Records
---
Amino acid sequence: MSYEGIKSVLEDHEECYLCGSSDRSLMGYYRNFDTIGLISLNDWYVVDFGLKEYDDQGNPLKSDDAHTFTQMTNTGEVFLMTSGSPDRGMASVDVSLPEDYRPDTQMLQEHLCQTCLDKITDSLKTSKWKYEKKQAIPLCLVDFKTLEIYSLQDGHVGCSIRDYWVDMEYDGEKVEIHAYYLPRRE
Ligand SMILES: [Zn+2]
């Protein structure tokens, strides 16, 4: 299955789930963050890795105190376990996908403008072997600051996003993602 060339049917670009200000997308809130996250594409559930902490207005919090957090979420589509230590700049997200996962292209066409749809479909390219029938994983990474999208298809073992490093492991319906904040030494 190729996702290239699919067309957006979204009429009002303001309602785009990625670059617009739809009430049904949390991107408008996360865009204030200087961090990265993950998007579960089929239900557009946006997860912040929690590498830096912010208050409700999106202002950075000083995190001098050492603490870790763990959060479990079942979106109905995916099960997520997020954990991290913001003061150390490390976090991980374990995603369990449904057994017959595949990207819901209709949902994406309806809620993304063409520019954003192209970014997402680009990220869905899979390395497919000849005799293997494989669906794209309905997940991607997002840089909240630039709105760039990074692939979470298997075959990718790691990726660098500005001051962040993300690596991933795949096992059937499970994807384990580790993210680190690694700023340059001053
Ligand atoms: Zn858009």
Note: The mean pLDDT is 90.
---
Amino acid sequence: MRIGIAGVGGRMGRLLIQVVAAREDAALAGGTVRPGGRVGADLGMLAGIGERGITATDQPAAMFQAAEVVIDFTNPAALATHLDLAARHGTALVIGTSGLSLEQERAIAETARTVPIVYAANFSSGVALLLALVRRAAETLGPEYDIEIVEMHHRQKIDAPSGTAIAMGRAAAAGRGITLEDHMESGRHGHTGKRRDGAIGFAALRGGQVVGEHTAIFAAATEHLTIGHRSFDRRVYAEGAVRAALWLKGKPPGLYGMEDVLGLR
Ligand SMILES: NC(=O)c1ccc[n+]([C@@H]2O[C@H](COP(=O)([O-])OP(=O)(O)OC[C@H]3O[C@@H](n4cnc5c(N)ncnc54)[C@H](OP(=O)(O)O)[C@@H]3O)[C@@H](O)[C@H]2O)c1
């Protein structure tokens, strides 16, 4: 499978190069950097695995043409171009970029009518299972259980709550048969008044180099259920994204998630 990687200068981009290069069933088809970025840098050298003879470009069109699938862990601002190129060249996409707006998520769904796309807030297998468990718990436990979602990430993270926390909120909302948008209570501060009935609350902690910690709390007067997950190494996301890319081979157009890749639905 020929895999292109957008954002090869980034932390995820460099890990993705390592994971793809280590596999026999995958080959690097190219890599991009932001316009004016480290154009011409060898992808292997960027990833610390020695020269591979493929250099970074700021012209994504060539990479989309050469690749069967492109993995995108970059920046929300790059999404529109990547969707456009995927549709134009019939290239499958794996999208890991977080902090996308609802409108951007709709654009992904629209493009997925013509090419297969895996979009996930979190590419770890453990988190895919966590989402299924949160949904099940919300389905099983009644509205007397208040749902709170707590996440902690490294100090460099620029969006909050994390994409995974929002995905957990959506899973809980789906389990309750409600929408997250109508029930989200995030960023409490000052005189907030009492907790809204049926709210799904969020708290985001930032500090140090935490790769990712997520906990869903179902709190009733007589008991609490907590379901949590910790990532110790960002490599778990790169491995999951490459697994998703390989899974896409031969798939019809459509919008898929990690639960599809793992056969959880
Ligand atoms: N879904 C998941 O499982 C998961 C896991 C980890 C991270 N993420 C998300 O993935 C994204 C990247 O994370 P990261 O930690 O790797 O961030 P990062 O280290 O900042 O890397 C992002 C890279 O993308 C580059 N970039 C920006 N615009 C670009 C463009 N138009 N074309 C090509 N490259 C472009 C940036 O270049 P400059 O430095 O020049 O701006 C940077 O090198 C974030 O949204 C993060 O939240 C998702």
Note: Residues 6-7, 9-13, 32-34, 37, 73-75, 78, 96-99, 120-123, 237 surround NAP (CB under 6 Å).
